[in-house]
């Protein structure tokens, strides 16, 4: 009789647990607690705070030819990969460092130093595709949540944190690497973006080789914030060997690219206003 009671109670506990689990599974907890909306709200505010900081530190390039040419590269990749341009913001900043990086709220920053350093438009397109992959894969907010902490991010957007925290967040995004898993995912997704856009990804691999071998001070920032460039070049080239042959196209005309490079060079030669 005692054993029967034990079995009955055990059955009741298991049945109750399964029943409760089933009922809880019926709720959309993400919707109930507005997780998506809250995350978007955090990203939007962080995006505003971080880009404001970068624009204060480095001049935003307003030259219509430069802005339009860079946007043409972004548009080519976005449209052929069904990436919505709604809310996607691209900034070109006067900064000699060879770098480009993604910010919260679908923002992409490209330094003039990067445009100056690349020999081919496909190299710039490759870096853009890589950063778009970070944006589309939500790597930015994942990185911040892991390294800064969600509670700190919430305190920042509510104005309850030390003002220096936003500088730390900006530094984390522009000067520290994503983990290797995220970087490789962004590389490979970015390469696929390029293939879909009929842009040759091989110059991107060449660019990584260049970075690894370069002794230029302006390249130091990129090397310190990205995995070993030769490794990335090699797995990109290996992936390309496995793909069907594609007839590649220029995203912008050769003349447009030449003029873009000249205009960026002239901007970087201008003295910085005090």
From TrEMBL:
A Pfam family that this protein carries is: Peptidase_M48
Q: Which UniProt keywords apply?
A: Hydrolase, Membrane, Metal-binding, Metalloprotease, Protease, Transmembrane, Transmembrane helix, Zinc
- Bilayer-crossing residues are 6-24
- Please list the residue ranges annotated as the Peptidase M48 domain: 69-236
As one GO molecular function, the record gives: metal ion binding
Cellular component terms (Gene Ontology): membrane
Q: Which CDD domains match?
A: M48C_Oma1_like
Q: How is the cofactor bound?
A: Binds 1 zinc ion per subunit.
- What is one process in the GO biological process aspect for this record? proteolysis involved in protein catabolic process
Q: Which Gene3D superfamilies match?
A: Metalloproteases ('zincins'), catalytic domain
Signal peptide: which range, if any? none
List the cofactors: Zn(2+)
Look up keyword Ribosomal protein and say if it applies.
no
Q: Which family does it belong to?
A: Belongs to the peptidase M48 family.
**Annotated PANTHER family:** METALLOENDOPEPTIDASE OMA1, METALLOENDOPEPTIDASE OMA1, MITOCHONDRIAL
Tell me the protein's name: Putative Zn-dependent protease, contains TPR repeats
């Amino acid at each position: 009789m005692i054993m029967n009671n034990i079995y009955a109670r055990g059955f009741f506990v298991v049945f109750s647990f399964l029943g409760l689990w089933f009922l809880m599974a019926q709720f959309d907890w993400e919707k109930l607690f507005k997780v998506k909306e809250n995350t978007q709200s955090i990203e939007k505010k962080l995006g505003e705070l971080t880009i404001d900081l970068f624009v204060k530190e480095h001049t935003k390039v307003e030259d219509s030819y430069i802005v339009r040419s860079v946007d043409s590269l972004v548009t080519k990749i976005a449209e052929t990969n069904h990436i919505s341009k709604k809310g996607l913001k691209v900034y070109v900043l006067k900064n000699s460092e060879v770098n480009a990086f993604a910010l919260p709220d679908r923002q992409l920053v490209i330094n003039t130093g990067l445009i100056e350093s690349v020999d081919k438009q496909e190299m710039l397109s490759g870096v853009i595709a890589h950063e778009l992959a970070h944006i589309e894969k939500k790597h930015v907010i994942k990185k911040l949540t892991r390294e800064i902490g969600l509670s700190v991010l919430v305190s920042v957007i509510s104005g309850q944190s030390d003002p220096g925290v936003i500088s730390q967040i900006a530094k984390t995004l522009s000067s520290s690497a994503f983990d290797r898993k995220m970087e490789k995912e962004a590389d490979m997704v970015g390469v696929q973006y390029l293939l879909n856009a009929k842009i040759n990804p091989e110059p991107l691999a060449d660019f990584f080789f260049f970075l690894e071998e370069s002794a230029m001070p302006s390249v130091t920032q990129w090397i310190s914030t990205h995995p070993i460039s030769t490794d990335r070049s090699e797995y990109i080239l290996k992936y390309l060997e496995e793909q069907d042959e594609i007839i590649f196209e220029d995203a912008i005309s050769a003349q447009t690219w030449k003029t873009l490079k000249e205009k960026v060079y002239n901007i970087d030669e201008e003295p910085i206003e005090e």
